[in-house]
Amino acid sequence: MTESENNPVRATGGCLCGSVRYVVRGPLRDVWACHCPWCRRLHSHYAAYSACETANLEIIHRGPGKLRWYRSSPAVRHGFCSKCGTQIFWDGRGKNHMSIAASTINEPTGLRLTKHLCVQLKGDYYEITDDVPQENSSPPDGGI
After folding, report:
1. Which residues form the domain of 64?
2. Among 63, 84, 105, 110, which residue's beta carbon has the most beta carbons within 10 A?
3. What is the count of structural domains for the chain?
């Protein structure tokens, strides 16, 4: 058994059709909302992500080719289900964590929204009206 398998399950989740599932053993970061144009296009609105250490994430495929990756830049790839299209993961090359779309985590999550990112790039069709801290830039490590 690996060290990760000895840790209790913190969260489970997956795509809409159930073809891609995951288990997180270990802590999850609270949710950050990114308002950049790339996240808005991928998610049809702003993206909300939690994250965990890659070593604490087990991805379960229900059939070959179900989890597909789209490389949006040399340093970033996005994981999605090839059957239902659900956007699940954001993976930055060289990072020791994986970002997980918050909407794919089974409830109750115990998480809360703690930060808005790239707010100067948000869509002109909505306002951010909550009291959550807002930043004009992306995170220092370039990840969500």
Report:
1. 3-29+41-111
2. 105
3. 1
Amino acid at 79: G
The CATH number of whichever domain residue 67 belongs to comes to 2.170.150.70
Which among 122, 143, 136, 115 is positioned nearest to 33, based on CA atoms? 115
Q: How far apart are CA 127 and CA 132, in angstroms?
A: 13
What stretches in the chain show pLDDT beneath 70?
Answer: 1-6, 139-143
CB 53 within 8 A of CB 95: no
Full-model pTM: 0.89
Q: How far is CA 51 from CA 4, 26, 142, in A?
A: 16, 11, 13
Residue with tokens 């002109």, as numbered in its chain: 124
Measuring CA to CA, how many Å separate 132 from each of 53, 68, 113?
24, 33, 7
- Tokens encoding 112: 């809360």
